[in-house]
C-alpha cells in the first residue's frame, strides 16, 4: 500500500499567484476586484503575463 501523500498549502499558494485567463471565474473575480471589465483583465494578462501582481499593477494604471 503506497504512503499517503501529505497535503500542503504550497500548490494552492502558487495557484493564487496566477490569473488563469481561460477560467471565467478568475477573470470575473479580478475584474470585480479592480473595477475593470473582464476584457481589460484578459488584455492585461496577455500583455504582462499571468502573474497576479503584475496584472493588478497593470489594471491599476
| Helix-strand category | mainly alpha
> What order do the helices and strands follow?
HHHH
* Coarse morphology: elongated
For the residues shown, what is the average pLDDT?
Answer: 91
Comma- or semicolon-separated keywords:
single chain, 0% strand
Description:
By secondary structure, this protein is an all-alpha fold. 61% of the residues lie in helices and 0% in strands. It has four helices and no strands. The protein has helices at 10-16, 24-34, 38-48, 52-59. It is elongated and about 50 Å long. The protein starts with 9 loop residues before the first helix and ends with a helix.
Topology:
Layout lengths: L9 H7 L7 H11 L3 H11 L3 H8 L2
Helix pairs in contact: 2-3, 3-4
Quick structural summary:
With 61 residues, the protein is mainly alpha-helical. The protein is 61% helix and 0% strand.
Amino acid at each position: 500500500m503506497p504512503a499517503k501523500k501529505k497535503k500542503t498549502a504550497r500548490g494552492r499558494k502558487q495557484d493564487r499567484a496566477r490569473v488563469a485567463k481561460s477560467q471565467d471565474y478568475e477573470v470575473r473575480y479580478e475584474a470585480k476586484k479592480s473595477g475593470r471589465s473582464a476584457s481589460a483583465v484578459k488584455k492585461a494578462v496577455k500583455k504582462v503575463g499571468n502573474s497576479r501582481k503584475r496584472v493588478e499593477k497593470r489594471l491599476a494604471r
